[in-house]
Structures are given as structure tokens and as C-alpha cells.
Amino acid sequence: MIKILGNQNTLLDQFIGELRDIEIQKDRMRFRKNMERIGEIFAYEISKTLEFQKKNITTSLGIAEVPLLHEIPVLATILRAGLPLHYGLLNFFDNSENAFISAYRKHHKDGNFDIRLEYVSSPQIEGKTLILSDPMLATASSMVLTYRELLRIGKPVHTHIVTIIASVEGVENITKNLAGQDVTLWVGAIDDELTAQSYIVPGLGDAGDLAFGSKL
Hints:
This protein has about 220 residues and is α/β, with parallel strands linked by helices. The protein has six helices and twelve strands. The relative contact order is 0.17.
């Protein structure tokens, strides 16, 4: 299942537009904050799919019956670019356990690259709802590799994959490689093009560098 939240004339479109803007990108704090805000929007929408239970709450004047979140998801993200988006999700799912995965592109002299996964820190996810986030879904190779690695720890009852901007190819690869899995893909915007170096166009650039500074 694919849910596209962008292009509906909401504040999400405003925040995505600011992420893309080459002038606004110069303010790293604002860039991180917009990613965090977008994470909060995704969290709110995902919460509509989760299990709630009604509970009587004692107020100063009586009893109020209120539906409260019963199903606490596990939040996972791919380092380092995913951290601000992850924090936005965590702001809303503030009782969640968290998983962190180090996955990156190892570039070769011929211009090609492969995906390296070197670190996984995760709580138990067997039978739980998992929310796995990464701001950009280019080829989706990192996401597919990360998801499969997490399955070695346990099988979630359902996984929500959250990304701000995806390419058409990335969405197709998620659909192909995770076919038959209990997965929902949440996307802010889908762009048509990938460069020869597998960067999304128009995209926004390198989300990790824009959020935290360039790397060697």
C-alpha cells in the first residue's frame, strides 16, 4: 500500500518546498526543523491506522472517556540523514522504543556504488508495529537491505516505511522487493528522475549533508 501525502495544499507541501529551496537550505537548523515537522505530520497520519482503547480519565470535574493509543510502534531510522525525521516521529510516539541502522553508499572509482550496512541497534520487533524512516528513497536499495536485516531480529506485524521524497524507481523497487510483506509506504512527494549517480531530480540534494554538514 502506498500513501502519498503531498500535493494536497497542506503545510506538508510548504515544508517540503522549503526543504527543496536552495536558499532556505543554507539554514541548517531550519532544514532539520522542517524534516522534524514532516515527521510529526507522518506520525499523526500513521496514528490513524493504529489500535486505540478507551479509558476513563478522571478530571477535576468528573470522568471523561478517552481513546488512548494502545499499540506503541517501534521507530527505526537509517543514520545519519534520518535523524531529524525520526525525531519528528518520536515527538508524537514518545513512548516508543527505537532502532538505528548505519547504511551508506560505498562509491567505487568506476562511478558505481554498493550499499554497506555496518551497524544495527534494535529492540525486539517481533509481533510489533515498525515505523522505518529515511528522508530520501532514491533506488531504495538501502531501505530494502535495512528492512531485510531487521527481519533477522524479528518479524513485525506491520511495517510503515516513511520517506519525504522518493523517485519513481525507488517506489517501484519497494513494491517489487517487498512484495508479499505487510508494508505500507508513506511518501511526501514522488519525483520522476534519477541521475546516473542515483540522485533524485529535482529532489533536494544530500539530506544528511544539508542537515549536519558535508562529510569526507
